[in-house]
C-alpha cells in the first residue's frame, strides 16, 4: 500500500470546483481536513443552469464560516487559459491537484466538439505542464495529481464488469476519447517527470444539486411539467449509479495515497501511475431506478400522490454514443483503500428529491 499523506495544512487545488463532484469535494475537505487551504477554479459556464453552480458556491462559503483556520480561494476562469493556470501554481504552490474540470456529457460532444478539445485536452495539458514545472529547481512540487476519467472510456466493451485491465481503445464518443487521452497524457508525464498521478473512472454519479443533463434530474423536470420521459433501449439499460458523497469519500481516500515513486531494474523511474474505477459495483435497471425516483418525488411532495406515471413514460430505442450497461469492477479500489460505496439508491434519490423541492420551491 502506498504511503499515506495527511491533507491537513496542505494546499489543494481543485479544478471544476463548483461542479457537482468538485463542490462536494471542497465541502468535504473543509468539514473533515481543517485546517486546509483550498484553491478552486471554475469557468461557471452555462452548459447547464448557472444558478445551481452559484448555490454550490454559496454552500462552500457557508461551510467555510465554520472553519476559520482553513482558507478557500475561488478563481473564475478556464483551465484552458495557460497563463492563468501558471499564475495560480506560482502564487499558491499546490501540494495536491484534483482535476475535475471538464466538458461533460456524451450527447453534447456530438453537437459541440470544440468545448471538449478546449477543456479536456488543452486544459488537462496545462495542468500537467504546471505540475511538471512545480518541481523545477529542485523545489518540492505537486505531490499527487488526481484527475477525473470516466466510465465512458469502456465504449461498447462487451465484458462486464468493466475492469481497469480491459483494453479501452474503442471509444464511441468524442467525450470518451478525450478522457482516454487524459489517461495516456498522465501516463507520459508520470513516466517522463516522475509525477505521481491517479485517474478515476467515475460511473454515473447522482445526488442533490447534481447536473440537470443527467437522466434522473431531466426526468424530474419533465414529470413536473407533465411531459413524457423517454426510457432508452426499452428500459433494458443498466447503470452503476453512484451517490456523490460516496464518490467524494473515494476521491479523498485516493488523494492521500499517491502512487509510489520507484526505479525499475534499468535504474529508470517506473511511472508512479494508477487508474481506478470508482462506482457502486451494483448496476441498477433503469426502470427500477425510475420507479424509486417517482416514489421519492411523491414522498417529498414534488409530485402529487395520484400522479399517473404510466401515461408519462415512453420506451424508446438506444441513442448513438450510449451503451446498454455500465458496471464497475471496484475490487482494486477496495483492496488498496478499503473503500466501498454505502449509500442505497433509495437513500440517495430521497436526498435528491428533498433538495429539488427546496431548491425549486415546488
UniProtKB/TrEMBL annotation:
InterPro entries per record? Epimerase_deHydtase, NAD(P)-bd_dom_sf
Residue intervals of the NAD-dependent epimerase/dehydratase domain: 12-279
**Keywords (A to Z) from UniProt:** NAD
Does NAD count among this protein's keywords?
yes
> Which domain of life does the UniProt lineage start with?
Bacteria
PANTHER family, per the entry? EPIMERASE-RELATED (PTHR43574)
Q: What is this protein called?
A: NAD-dependent epimerase/dehydratase family protein
What species does this protein belong to? Blautia parvula
Amino acid at each position: 500500500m502506498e504511503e499515506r499523506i495527511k491533507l491537513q495544512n496542505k494546499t489543494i487545488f481543485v479544478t471544476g470546483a463548483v461542479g457537482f463532484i468538485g463542490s462536494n469535494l471542497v465541502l468535504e475537505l473543509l468539514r473533515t481536513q481543517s485546517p486546509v487551504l483550498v484553491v478552486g477554479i471554475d469557468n461557471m459556464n452555462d452548459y447547464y443552469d448557472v444558478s445551481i453552480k452559484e448555490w454550490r458556491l454559496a454552500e462552500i462559503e457557508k461551510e467555510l464560516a465554520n472553519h476559520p483556520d482553513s482558507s478557500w480561494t475561488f478563481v473564475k476562469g478556464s483551465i484552458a487559459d495557460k497563463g492563468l493556470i501558471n499564475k495560480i501554481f506560482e502564487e499558491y504552490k499546490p501540494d495536491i491537484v484534483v482535476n475535475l474540470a471538464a466538458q461533460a456529457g456524451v450527447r453534447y460532444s456530438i453537437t459541440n466538439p470544440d468545448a471538449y478539445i478546449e477543456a479536456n485536452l488543452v486544459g488537462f495539458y496545462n495542468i500537467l505542464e504546471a505540475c511538471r514545472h512545480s518541481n523545477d529547481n529542485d523545489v518540492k512540487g505537486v505531490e499527487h495529481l488526481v484527475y477525473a476519467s470516466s466510465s465512458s472510456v469502456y465504449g461498447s466493451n462487451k465484458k462486464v464488469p468493466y475492469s481497469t485491465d480491459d483494453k479501452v481503445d474503442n471509444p464511441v464518443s468524442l467525450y470518451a476519447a478525450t478522457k482516454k487521452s487524459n489517461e495516456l497524457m498522465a501516463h507520459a508525464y508520470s513516466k517522463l517527470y516522475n509525477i505521481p498521478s491517479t485517474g478515476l473512472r467515475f460511473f454515473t454519479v447522482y445526488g442533490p444539486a447534481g447536473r440537470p443533463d443527467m437522466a434522473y434530474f431531466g426526468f424530474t423536470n419533465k414529470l413536473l411539467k407533465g411531459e413524457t420521459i423517454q426510457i432508452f433501449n426499452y428500459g433494458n439499460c443498466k447503470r452503476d449509479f453512484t451517490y456523490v458523497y460516496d464518490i467524494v469519500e473515494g476521491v479523498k481516500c485516493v488523494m492521500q495515497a499517491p502512487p509510489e515513486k520507484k526505479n525499475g531494474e534499468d535504474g529508470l523511474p517506473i511511472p508512479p501511475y494508477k487508474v481506478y474505477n470508482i462506482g457502486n459495483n451494483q448496476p441498477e435497471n433503469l426502470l427500477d431506478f425510475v420507479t424509486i425516483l417517482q416514489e421519492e418525488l411523491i414522498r417529498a411532495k414534488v409530485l402529487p400522490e395520484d400522479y399517473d406515471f404510466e401515461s408519462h413514460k415512453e420506451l424508446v430505442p438506444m441513442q448513438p454514443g450510449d451503451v446498454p450497461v455500465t458496471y464497475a469492477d471496484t475490487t482494486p479500489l477496495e483492496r488498496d483503500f478499503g473503500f466501498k460505496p454505502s449509500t442505497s439508491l433509495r437513500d440517495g434519490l430521497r436526498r435528491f428529491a428533498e433538495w429539488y423541492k427546496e431548491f425549486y420551491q415546488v
